[in-house]
Write a sequence for this structure.
């Protein structure tokens, strides 16, 4: 079901968006709708990823030394 939406957007942005829509052969409404679909699906994916990371949290042992420390040790051993 379609619904009407009123937005307040800077005129310059509207003009640029109209050009993008025209260059892609779609209306400004379709362009914005597709962007919102993409935005909503990215947010849903991010939430799923966050949920997965929370479940996996603590599985891998925390690293005791930093990358820089390990690199320094390696370089010192290499010189000896």
């Amino acid at each position: 079901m379609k619904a009407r939406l009123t937005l307040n957007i800077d005129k310059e942005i509207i003009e640029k968006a109209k050009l993008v829509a025209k260059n892609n052969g779609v209306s400004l409404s379709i362009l914005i709708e597709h962007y919102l679909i993409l935005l909503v699906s990215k947010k849903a994916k991010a939430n799923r990823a966050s949920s997965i990371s929370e479940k996996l949290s603590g599985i891998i042992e925390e690293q005791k030394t930093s990358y820089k420390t390990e690199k320094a040790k390696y370089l010192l051993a290499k010189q000896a």
Summary: The CA atoms of residues 19 and 65 lie 53 Å apart. The two ends are 73 Å apart (CA to CA).
